[in-house]
Amino acid sequence: MKPKEVVEFANANDVKFIDLKFIDCPGTWQHTQLPVGRLSEAMFEDGVAFDGSSIRGWQPINASDMTMIPDPETAKLDPFFAHPTLSLICSVHDPITKQPYSRDPRYIAKKAEAYLKQTGIGDTAFMGPEAEFFIFADVRFDNSRANEGYYFLDSVEGSWNSGREEFPNLGYKTRPKEGYFPTPPTDTLANVRQEMMLTLQESGIEVEVGHHEVASGGQCEIGMKFNRLLPCADQLMWFKYVVKNVARKHGKAATFMPKPLFGDHCSGMHTLQSIWKEGKPLFGGDLYAGLSQMALWYIGGIIKHAKTIAALTNPTTNSYRRLVPGFEAPVNLAYSSRNRSASVRIPITGPSPKTRRIEVRFPDPSCNPYLAFSAMLLAGLDGIQNKVDPGDPLDKDIYALSPEELSSVPHMPGSLEEALAAFEKDHEFLLRGDVFTKDAIAEWLDYKRAKELNPIRMRPTPQEFVLYFDI
Q1: pLDDT value, residue 64
Q2: Which CB contacts under 8 angstroms, 24+ apart, belong to 203-209?
Q3: 300 pLDDT exceeds 70?
Q4: Which helix (H) or strand (E) holds 442?
Q5: Residue 423: which H helix or E strand, with range?
Q6: Is 403 helix (H, G, I), strand (E, B) or coil?
Q7: d(CA 284, CA 305)
Q8: CB–CB of 70/20 below 8 Å?
Q9: Cα(359)–Cα(219) distance, integer angstroms
Q10: 237: which residues sit within 8 A by CB, 6+ positions away?
């Protein structure tokens, strides 16, 4: 829509409020609401002022004034408010210079798309994230006191509830790692997922599939159709918003935390990717698994910079509870057409070049999609520009490899600390086209270390008491 069309759309739908959303650095939507009387075409030029000093990773208090400018193409009716409400996603600008804010993740994604065109390699990058999530019936946690800390999660599907008195307990609990595709009554969340899917479709997001996932305790996946990088990031934020709010409507809580449960599968976000130019796909060819040389070089760039981009694609300490070698997580920095333990997979598709794409398997849904998608694109472009050889495909069973063979396969970082160290050392490729700035990178490093790594370092965990209390 154009600004004039947004105003007309609001009038036609008897909208009462405008909900302006923008994203902070870690990847959470923030919002403010205005009476519809403030909506005008001028708002899409002038924006709305706000205080940025309390937004995570943004301006200091002595320079806190900022402006959010709504993007008319993101206009949707918000399905979760009591009164008709128009939702608009905003980009953030400096109120004095009117320039886009360098730390605004959405601006970084815009620059990534512009840089792709600038290289002449292509003009469109498509992303297709597959974000998994859990739906719990009860969530409690606290770690605020010096002498106490705990978490408690529950689900009627949880295997741990097989013997619980439920007046009556009707059985049909999901056994660990056996939750893939069960029918009701084992799958208790089918109706919730259907409502999520309908809400997404009503919001203009094309849904391809929805199903229960592998883990016990309510793991699910809903697949969306791929999109261009920037609108795909917008779409993923809307997806998470819908999932969380529909779950809440049903008295449940949804989380995109990668590893909420011990001893069961985690939530990943496999991300399909391809580059096109002038309406033509560039990843289809006659090389390995039907790929072009460009696609193989793109994979080479992803593998080369994986330890760096992990700081953005796997940005939490919890991310590395999932990326543990020796299990089924995609920690091996290699590519394959079938092997799901490889970090990059080439999905089996039909013969059409239009369907050819790669699947980067290590990201998880705790990421900020604007940053993660941009980083993966820039890593892949670096591979194309420098003709980075991805090596031989890993088509063997990873668990059948000898220790010597396994040692030759590089791995993803084992911790957020390791990923941040790689990010600090190897980020020149992210600065190209001024996509990421040194200021944004420095703030990401400082924030993650001060606000996440250090607090985790200083707190004991329950397992440490199991292991060490009687020493």
Answers
A1: 77
A2: 203/76, 203/77, 203/79, 203/238, 203/242, 204/76, 205/235, 205/238, 205/239
A3: yes
A4: helix 438-447
A5: helix 416-425
A6: helix
A7: 23
A8: yes
A9: 21
A10: 21, 23, 29, 89, 369
DSSP tally for the chain: helices H, then strands E: 14, 18
pLDDT (tens digit per residue) in 45-95 = 999 999 888 888 876 655 678 999 999 999 999 999 999 999 999 999 988
pLDDT at 342: 87
Whole-Å CA distances, 47 to 22, 153, 296, 337: 12, 42, 43, 47
Q: Largest Cα–Cα distance in the chain?
A: 71
Question: What residues are labeled active site?
Answer: 51, 130, 132, 213, 221, 270, 340, 359, 361
Give me 428's structure tokens: 């020149």
Q: Does residue 360 sit in helix, strand or coil?
A: strand
Task: Give pTM, 2 decimals.
Answer: 0.95
- What pLDDT was estimated at residue 24? 94
For tokens 């941009």, what's the residue?
Answer: 374
Rg (CA), the chain: 23
Best CA proximity match to 377, nearest among 441, 433, 447, 456 = 433
How far is it, in rounded angstroms, from Cα 243 to Cα 282? 33
